[in-house]
């Protein structure tokens, strides 16, 4: 039997941090990932880990063309489980408020700074070194490594393509190394296992009133005013609750319309973010919004829809992983061996590629990620010790689950 501690010890701390620094120094906002994708491919190829590019194309809305990087370790038992290891290579667009190079990779007091350092190049470095370590272990099951594009973009196109193109079909479980504790529903500290996440829809609502001269507003129907009333109604929607994931939520994002001087606006549009828990399906959240708007008895016509997407199934569904699943047990044991403590358990408050795996692909999915601060903003950093610890936990947990 493979002992988790011995496998974890093969992860070199200095090499892991050096890799992380190299990754952070590559500028890679979403839709601009070509350089970092090539770096990940070459890093795997230099270690004879047989990477492949998996092309991602979305011509209709974004015009995006890019590549995931995938690689597989084949175990010796075809009946053993296959584990997906996932991280994304992209960051948000570079934030202008940085007072230093946002891709510096500067290390100070155990913190490595840079855009995307925590979200999620720390997690990317962790699965890269874990995958390398697992290549030297006799495994019964397979490991599928996936470094994907566009997680921070509008649709998660990299992970969507993995699911759509069948890469997840033979997988039995997934580990995603997103930064977990900082975005959990409750206060959680590493080492932690995050066992689920809320889902998300984006309401896209069109409001049609009637134009009139601005000096005689009573002769028209002001779509902007009615859109404001719709936003307030959505903000006050009653939402469901879940024992692990907490409450759903609604957050109006913007109202736009009008613009002509001396004219009553005849049209307006608003969008609202709707985070959901299990049971709050697309049909349910549409019906709730329509009922709330109908109760306003507006003079405007209101059409409730959802954000345009490349396909009907491109949305983030909520999921919860059974704490008794063997992968959770393997990661729990690995955490105790590596960190010397039992992991805390949390649930994610927002969405990411893990929703595609946990909901659409129906894989038991666990988030195990390094912590830091200031994600998506200037001054973002990740704790380097956390990155090394996550790499060791994932290595040991995967070996235990697949061994």
Can you walk through the features of this model?
Belongs to the peptidase M20A family. Keywords: Hydrolase, Metal-binding, Zinc. This protein is of the alpha+beta class and 403 residues long. The chain folds into two domains: 4-198 and 318-402, Zn peptidases (Aminopeptidase), CATH 3.40.630; 199-306, Alpha-Beta Plaits (2-Layer Sandwich), CATH 3.30.70. Helix content is 31%, strand content 25%. The protein is built from ten helices and 19 strands. Strands 1-2-6-3-7-17 form a six-stranded mixed β-sheet, with helices on both faces. A four-stranded antiparallel β-sheet has the order 4-5-19-18. It has a four-stranded antiparallel β-sheet with strand order 12-13-9-14, with helices on one face. The longest helix has 19 residues, at 384-402. The chain is elongated, with a radius of gyration of 23 Å. The model has no long low-confidence stretch (mean pLDDT 96).
Coarse morphology:
elongated
Number of domains: 2
Secondary-structure-derived class = alpha+beta
CATH level-four homologous superfamily name of the largest domain: Zn peptidases
Count the DSSP helices: 10
How many angstroms separate the termini?
7 Å
Question: Main β-sheet, in a few words?
Answer: 6 strands, mixed
Uncertain segments are: none
Kindly provide the radius of gyration, computed on alpha-carbon positions and rounded to a whole number of angstroms: 23 Å
Percent of residues in beta strands: 15-25%
Mean pLDDT: 96
Query: In sequence order, what are the helices and strands, one letter per element?
Result: HHHEEEEEHEHEEEHEEEEHEEHEHEEEH
